[in-house]
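Wait, mind explaining this?

_____
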Amino acid sequence: MSRYYPRPMRVAPPIHHHLITGKPVPGTILLVNPFYPKDPVSSFGKHVLTPTLALTSIAGSTPKEWAVQYWDENLLQGHLPYDPIPQVVGITVHLTFARRACEIARFYRERGAIVVMGGLHATSCPEELAPHTDIIVKGEGVGVWPLVLEDIKKGAWQRVYEHRFDRQYHTEPLPDRDILPRESFLTATSVIATRGCSNRCGFCYLSTRGLKMPYSAKTPEQVVDEIRREGTPYAVFTDNNLAMDHAYLRRLCRALQPLGIMWNAAVTLDVTDDPTLVRDMALSGCTGVFIGLESLTTQNMLDANKKSPPAEDYATRVRIFHDYGINVNGSFVFGFDHDTPEVFEQTINWVEENRLACATFHILTPYPGTPLFRQMEAEDRLLHKNWDLYDTAHVVFQPKGMTPEQLKDGYDRVYKRLFSLASIWKRRPEKVTSVPAYLAATILYKRSNLFWHLLIRTRLTRKVWAPLVEAARRRNLKFREQLQRSSSSSAISPRVSLREWLFGISTSTAPTPGLSDWFRPKGLFFQKKNHRARP
């Protein structure tokens, strides 16, 4: 894989503090997702697959009298909006772009706007953000956001608002996706059906001190309605673990099946305890799962307090997904205490042997407030506290089984090999007829950063990918018909020709919307509420 790394993907756009602007316009809100540098060894495309739900959820809870604008710096559209200056600026803050968030806050505060910061970093490190913002929201922001705006209208806001994740998730308002530049994302239908996770892995942000997120779920009917409103052929569930409640997942799958869409989600490997559940996922349109395999060393998982099947069972369980036509994106973390320099070769060999369509690699990163951070700090193993580099692509601690240099070099090497043509070929599907589709999708997504940079900058992501998504959906519908006809105890592998994948030609008799249905000028994809605005 070539290291194409243009400046706009690694350096935030300049902020011109000398600009002369007008006064803030009352009743206007700007919601900002700050820029963060992209890792040159991974695909730029993953940053525009779906928009952040944090900001659309805040927009959904905004009273109707406010006009809301959305701005994502990662869409490469230039300088921050300044004509007009909004009355309120809401910024979602994560550890790795906290510094950038503070720079954005400064620009708007200098011009009289009221800045509100929320997100994980506002919860874990509020004292760091306090000098740079007018208001901090800790915990769940959706529930307290209307109160924040009401206090701003009165001119008597608090410095800190805190709200627990104690409301039933099905009572929350729908995200407002009408603020989004939909053309900039592969799909705007990013959905959360369930909130919370039963695991408290020591390295995960969900284990941050003070963050308690009990499990709660929307009804399957609510989820279906939310997806149907968008009218798109592909949805991405961004739940921490959609499969935490297996009975709920089965009900959700059966509710999704009539929609005829494709969907992906993060689940845990134990969903394969019941292969009939995996079958229901496939019948409802699941084409890919993201699974935190983390490590091929079981002791690493025990040390991290992660509940997971033993590593020696991984291959058998991955095969169950493959048998039902579901691709697996395996996520691995390097740098655990039982890792040695051999872990990199061992892991990439396993990925290739088990034909994972995709894999995601991370360097173990101790997030502030987590048990892992406290352990590293107590053992004096933290190399620094430059949060910009706490992005899982840099080494920020002293590993036990190797040097920091070995850890970083190994991380780079496995990504380089994963995206190599040789590895892509080794991981091809066993069914020969499925190979063309796999190669086309993998090469376009994983080896085309020059292509992705162009698409992002010109806002062509959805337009270019929509025909490919529709073709894949037609292929999936055909596979689902074959699976439905098979017995409940058997699985089949998807078959497809290059002609079918590229042009969507199918022998299916089921009514399937064509490309024109996804581009209707008056369709759901282009409707916009009057009280919302976007660039």
Remarks:
- The longest strand covers residues 25-33.
- Residues 494-535 have pLDDT under 50 and may be disordered.
- The two ends are 34 Å apart (CA to CA).
- The first helix runs from residue 7 to 10.
